[in-house]
């Protein structure tokens, strides 16, 4: 049985004070959440310490949104695997479309970051997905296949999560049709050597569509942006039916 993994990606939102407020509302809602569900919060670097302290003893795991491939060095603005694990980070998002679009991330740097994350004992959440233009041109499957082929060179598939995030569905309220997301995720799984890799869907996941998304047989979880910022809505998502 593949693990169900429900992750929030706070992107560049929330001060430390706001993070503490969120946890006060969110943590008590987990009392009846089935144990088998892995719950992760991937937060800005400045919030990691606050969460690390407040999540101690809770079932929520801590995630970051980037990691550099070098052990240390003159890489202004970057962060190392050791710096993350030292404060209790277990997961890291790599290759998010916003990193690829705005910060020059390529499949080659994604691959370097994936391997570095694993070397330092982190579990990477690799994001792949197509633009609207690529989808309309019928290129989605080929594009995703190519991303996987390049990104996963020498990556250990026993310590990996993949998130399928169609770029046109991110932050737009325009969710990918659930059967279509299920189909693409099945296609991604066919390309993997390890059939136990959890594969998430991401893109406008909300309290009102989570039950339908999680009912799809290939979808093992979700990577949630906007709806993970409010305690109530993220609580409804992790407590899906
Ligand atoms: O990492 C999360 C995704 O980019 C989805 O964001 P969203 O839920 O705000 O559409």
TrEMBL record:
The record's active-site residues are: 96, 165
Q: Where is this gene product found? A: Cytoplasm
Describe which pathway this protein belongs to, using the record's wording.
Carbohydrate biosynthesis; gluconeogenesis; Carbohydrate degradation; glycolysis; D-glyceraldehyde 3-phosphate from glycerone phosphate: step 1/1
* Reactions catalysed: D-glyceraldehyde 3-phosphate = dihydroxyacetone phosphate
Top-level enzyme category: isomerase
Please list the GO biological process terms of this entry. Answer: gluconeogenesis; glyceraldehyde-3-phosphate biosynthetic process; glycerol catabolic process; glycolytic process
Role noted for this protein: Involved in the gluconeogenesis. Catalyzes stereospecifically the conversion of dihydroxyacetone phosphate (DHAP) to D-glyceraldehyde-3-phosphate (G3P).
The record's subunit annotation is: Homodimer.
Q: What is this protein called?
A: Triosephosphate isomerase
Natural source organism: Dulcicalothrix desertica PCC 7102
Gene name on record? Answer: tpiA
